[in-house]
Amino acid sequence: MKPASFDYVAPRTVAEAVEALGDTRRKAQVLAGGQSLILEMHLQRIRPQLVVDINRIPELDRMSIEGDELRVGALIRHAAFEPADAVPGPLGTLLSRAVVNIAHPPIRSRGTMAGSFAWAHPASEWCAIGVALDATVEVNGPDGARAIPAGDYFLGPYNTARRPQELITAVRLPLLGENSGVGFIEHRRTHFCFAQVAVAAALTMNDGVISGARIGLVNSADRPVRARAAERSLLGTELGTLPKVLRLPDDHPFARAGRVAAQDDAAPVAEPYADAEYKRQAIAVLVGRTLREAASDQRARMAAREEGHR
Asked: Which InterPro entries does UniProt cross-reference here (predicted)?
C-alpha cells in the first residue's frame, strides 16, 4: 500500500507550525522522526490531510539543563542519550541504559523522545520513565503554551491530553540527586520486538535507608504506570548486603516490592505470547532485579565519591 495523498508544509518557527496545526479544515499530523507515523501512513491506518514537518525549526533541536531539570527539545533524537555522559549524574545513566532498548540504531538516529510522548505507545520506554520521574510535557497551540505533568498526560493507548492542534515543543525531566541510583531492565521475545515488560527505577538512600523510590512500568497497563504502592513499600527500609544470586529471596524488600507492583500497581493487557498472568510474573521479577541494579548503582556512586574525597 501507499499513503493517501496529503499536503505538506515545513515551517521554520514554532509559531508557523502552530498556525499550520490550527487550521481545523484539515486533519494534520506532525512529522519529526516519523518512525511510527510513516509506517502508519504507508498502511493507511492514519490518513492525514496535512503533514507538518518540524525538522527545520532550530529552537526545537536543543537540549539544556535549566535549574534542576533537563529540557529536551522536540527534535532531540534517541541516539543523543546513548553516551552515558550526555546528561550528567544518575539521570544520564538511566537514559543511556534505557535508550539502547529502543528499536535499532537507524531508528534511534531519527526518532525522538518527544515523538514517543506524542505517540503514547504503552511499550514506550521514555513514557514510563517520564511518569516515574514526574516529567513535564511542554505543548504550544492556538490558545498558547501550557505544561502538562506526565501523570496527567497519558490517557490510554495512543491517547493523551495534548489537543490535536497542539505541538509538543519539549519534555522536561528532573535531574536526580547524586545520592540516587538508577536501573533499567527490559524483557522482550527478540531484539526486534516491543518490550513485553520493562522497569525503570531510581532509589535515593541515606545511610543505607531508602528515603525515596521511583518505579516506572513499561507495557504493564494500557498506559505507562508509576508503581506507587511498590514505592511506598520500600520507604524507610534499611538495606543490608545486596544478594549476589540472580533470584532474590522471597522475603527481600525488593522481591516484596515486585509482588506489590505486579498485583497492586499493574493492570497488564494480554497480548500474543504474553497473557496477563505471565506479565504479572515478569513484572514482579523485573521490579526486584531493577531495584537491585539501582541500589548497586547508588552504592557505587557513593563509593566513588568517598574515594574522590580522600
From this structure: CO_DH_flav_C, CO_DH_flav_C_dom_sf, Diverse_Substr_Oxidored, FAD-bd_PCMH, FAD-bd_PCMH-like_sf, FAD-bd_PCMH_sub1, FAD-bd_PCMH_sub2, Mopterin_DH_FAD-bd
